[in-house]
What does this fold into?
Amino acid sequence: MTGSGKVVLFSLKDAPALIEHIFPAQKLSVESYKEQMAGQGKTLTALGNFWKGRKPLILNKACILGALLPATGNLKRDLEIFEKLMGMDDESFVVRIGRIKSKDIVARVPLQEIERYFTVDPPGSLPKNAPFLVEEYVTSGGKIPKIKWRDEVPEPERRQIEARALPPLNYLDLVIISDRPESCGSEMSAHIWDDVNAHLGTRANSIPELVEQLGLMRFGRRPRAVDAFCGSGQIPFEAARLGCDVYASDLNPVACMLTWGAFNIVGAPEEKRKELATAQEKLVQKVQREIDDLGVEMDERGRRAKVFLYCLETTCPQSGWIVPMLPTRVVSIGYAVVARLVPDKKNKRYEIEIVSDVSAKEMAEAARGTIVDGYLEHAIEGKLFQTKLTTLRGDYTAGGGTTKNRLRLWEKTDIVFRETDVYRERLYAIQWQEEVPVGSRRRPKSKFRSVTSKDLAREKKVTDYVSAHLAEWQEKGWVPDMVIEPGDETERLYRERGWTHWHHLFNPRQLMIGAMYKKNIRADNAFGFTQILNFGSKLCRWTTSPARRAKDGSGKQIGGASNNVADSFYNQALNTLYSYGSRATASVLPLALANYKGFSLPEGISLSVCAGPVTEIPMCEADLFVTDPPYGDAVKYEEILEFFIAWLRKNPPPEFAGWTWDSRRALAIKGEDEEFRLGMVAAYKRMTEMMSADGLQIIMFTHQSGSIWADMANIVWASGLRVTAAWYVVTETDSAIRGKGNHHVKGTVLLVLRKRLGEKKTSRDDLAMDIQDEVEEQVSTLTGFNQEAKGHNRNENLFSDADLQMAGYAAALRVLTRYAVIDGKDMTVEALRPRVKGQTTFVDDLITFAVETANCCLVPQGIEKSYWDKIQPSERFYLKMLDIEAQGYKTLDNYQNFAKAFKVKDFRPFMASERANAARLKSAADFGRAEMSGDSEFASSTMRGILYALMELQKEVDGDEVVKHLSYNVPDFFNQRDGIVEISDYLARKLEGIRPEEASAARVLRDLIRHQRV
It folds into this structure.
């Protein structure tokens, strides 16, 4: 292609897409991790941090550009152009890392005649040729010479020279010290356009211009992108930011709202965002004044409430005492505040006294509250009473084996527990803060205090006020009146508290604040409202932590103590609490004043957001379908988001009024069962019908389930699609969603698809050779790119073994899914055949065969394929993962994926560490004598015998004894000697950089066996 500058309609109509042939998955994994680690600093998070499963924007950008860019006859150059557009090239890093100072350039870069590029003051005080250190050339006056760029040096030339001065780091370390590409503005890509246009035949000066021109060349129009599972809006927003026309839809109206916010707030012009900020400020002030007028959050001394702490209390059935239900009596770690339980014998209850600055001993004692390991626990005059919580609730087994209890179910008019309920609720502490004079920069002091009779009078005033207005507020839609439908997540609200309506999840104060905000709601301030709800319910934990100290042993304080009310959706579940924190108005309203990021979307693009199932998308031809469907999603969004729907469904803002404000659970595609599969097929069949002839689909899914490939192949076949590529990108960091101790990094498979044209037929026998040839060619191509990259790109592989594995799977699926009929069977019919538990389907057999063929091509360098084919799955796993460790890769998902690939039932016995980004195999010493016998997958294997021998050698056991023991531990030892030498030599090379002592032992063992007299 040449840079003629003339865009020719449909000139790329039949050109393959770049993403179908090459994709820098490793670099994208690093960039995705960088974005995910930004937390609240991510671009769209401020719109709704309750939505956790966001795919990185940079990954979405890569998918869309990769689908539009052509794969030419020069894949190396194609990749270079793609990386320039993504900000991954060295010259882009010049901006991402921060412009490099002139004195640092001449210290690092060999340059002839430096005064061609720089002015030197005083003239002639520095050498003519670099590199040199400016600091070493002090003038006679004792000053260090000054050096700066000449004005006449053009920016492209500066950029090239600066790129040579980048730190000699690998890609991961370079990204760590750099800004994300999206935060660098147009300056980052200023240098790329001559190269891009020359390669593509375009005349663009920005990415939106390029996207429009590529659309004209492929489809005859600006590209039309569709995401029918738009969720938090990540994919539609990035498509719009790149310059596509976008259609976004989701069954859930909260997802649609987040997507609308991405377009119309984050994507709005700067002036509009400023207007929103001003309007938000005025609304917050208005609500604050209304609350202040009621006089329920200021005490008689003028102190303003910051946080109210509540707990449940119940009557102990053994003692008859009313006991506060506190998992801990610690109120604040940083301020050494505890809640002391003071017995009131007369009334058989406890007063709660809040005490500050207590001793370390009392703090330690207070860590144990009255809720301990599923029991209510308290002591009277030395006698300990313990009652199971299930007994308190009155749990019993009903018909059908379901568990029920004797908690009273709340009525629609209830806003507090009744005195006759098993549980009641009490206010037990208040955090007060003093008023600070207007304009003062001093942080207000705060203090935790016990609850007084006047505080309780103010509480009653709030409760009475809400009770008097509840019916009116519900009628007007200012407070929910929606029933909680039973479900996996919502059932616990009935079971654990007796709550039946969504407003029961909020105490009277929270209902009052919510109602006063909701009556003023508009589309653009609805996002602030969801923040108020998320941080203002009975599901909000009270969290406290000590001051942070430096980890260098100095004990230096690097952060203050923290006392906070956490969000309701910290782990994407509806968790009932025995004690919780309730923010006062002055503490919760500022959450509505989010500082939204701004990325004004290109003018003239078409944006649509609709609520409804995929099968009801109005028919219109589109070109790119990028979707992240809910495959096996552990988060029940269709249930938990009713928390917000209940507040927004009545009288929503006009912009949202056309959506059905209901979660429509029955229509939601969820789970992994037969119903899910049929729902997915119906959805993707609809999208296939909407695809233009040259259109492309990219499906993102998390690679966890063992049946994932068969499921996806079924969906692809039944939807009339075919696989053209697949890539694997690490997209998620450790998260509370996956639970304590479950340190699994999630990776995302990108499945690239096109329409299946024609009715091709083949047989199982013919497939075997086709698949093997395709897989070998694919793996060989990517391996070749790795070898080529060694000389250019910081000695790093472009593609890891996980990429090669994924490419092998894709090649196998590419062959399979191009056929409509295999062995006389219509694959569309076979794909829809219901699964029977324990039964292997025809598709399962085909996928297993294809995957095994792909895995056979993944032999580590240094081991003969003939030997590789003979060894056990556990040995293949250990040797392959050692190869990956030697390359510096440490992510746990690699171990999970290859364990599945090699059919290792349980990889954990092989692991010394299962940390997400610091995983590693056990060394010979780590294994010791373990896994030598019994049911272990490693038992009686040659590999296990070798590791035992290495352990002995490191303990300085005599060599003859080591060989003798090895002959016992390895079955058929004498016929395995060549294999032992081969593996020992392999271990010596792979371990040299990670465990040198073990590598030395491997060399000794190799030579012992090689020179053994038989």
Residues 18-200 form one domain. The first helix runs from residue 25 to 36. The first strand starts at residue 118 and ends at 121. Residues 734-745 have pLDDT under 50 and may be disordered.
